[in-house]
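Thread: "does anyone have the structure for this chain?"

Original post by V.I.:
We have the sequence but no experimental structure in hand. Need at least a predicted one for the grant figures.
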Amino acid sequence: MSSPSTPSQSPIPVGQFISLSNGHRVHYHETGHASDERPSLVFLHGSGPGASGYSNFHLNFPFFAEQGFHVLTPDYLGYGLSDKPTDIAYTSAMHVDVLHELLEKKGVKRCILIGNSLGGAIAFQYALTHPQQVAKLVVMGPGGVEEPALWAAGMSGLICMGAFIQQRKTDRESFRELLHHIVASADTITDEVLDSRHPIWLEQPIEVFSTMKVDVFGDRLADLKVPVLCLWGQKDNFLPVRHALQVAEKVADVRVVISSRAGHWFMLEEPDFFNRVVMDFVG
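Reply from O.Q.:
Generated one for you, C-alpha cells below.
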C-alpha cells in the first residue's frame, strides 16, 4: 500500500486519519462533533482519477460547517490521502462498509449523505443497507440508477476516462483534457483543480479502477424511505441526465433539479446555488 503524503508535499490540506479494522487508514476532514440534535453531513466524492473529498467539495463543506453542522468529508480507500491497497476489490459495497465503520468510530448516529457520481451510488446503497442511520440524501449525477449496458456506450466523458486510465496517461495536459470532459465550461478546470488531483492520480494503483464495481439499484430505489434531493447537470457526459427522471419516478419523496449550466460536477460548477439549495433541503 502507498503511504499518505506528508503535509509539506500534500496536494490537498491534511486533515485527520483513522485506522480501520482491516489495518488500512482513511483520511478525512472534520468540523464540529456528532450530536443527537442535528444529523451530521457526510460528503462523498466521485471516482475520477485523483479524486478526494477536498477536491470535490472544498467550495461546499466549509459553508455548511459555518452553519453549525457537524461535517465529515472522507477520502475513500484508494483516493485522496487514504491508503491505496492493491489487494482489495474497490466495490461500492466495500466503500459502504468502510463508511459505516468510520461513522461508528466518529459517533455518528444520524446523517445526511451528500454524494456525487460514485458518491451518489454509495449514498443510495448506504441508505438501503443502514436505513435507520440516514435522515436524508443529496445526490448529484449519482451512479447505480440503471445497468451500464443501457447507457455507457453513449457517454463521451466516460469513454474518454476509460481510455485515459487504460493507457495510464500521466502528463498534466492529458489530465487537464480529461477533466474538461467532466464540466460544462473549461474555465472550471483551473491550475488549482489540477494541483489538487493530478499528484493523487499518479499514486493510485490500477486496481482502484480495474476492480471497481458499482451495484445497480433500479427498482430498489423505491425502497428508500427518506427525502432525496437529486441534482443533475444537463451537460453531464458521464451519467445521462435522463436518469434524473428515473430517480423521480422511483423514489417516493424526491425533488429533482436539472441545470443547463452544469456538467458532472454540479457542486463545483454552481457552488453558491448548490449550497443554497442543499441548505434549504437539509434545514
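V.I.: this helps a lot. The chain has a mean pLDDT of 96.
O.Q.: and The two ends are 40 Å apart (CA to CA).
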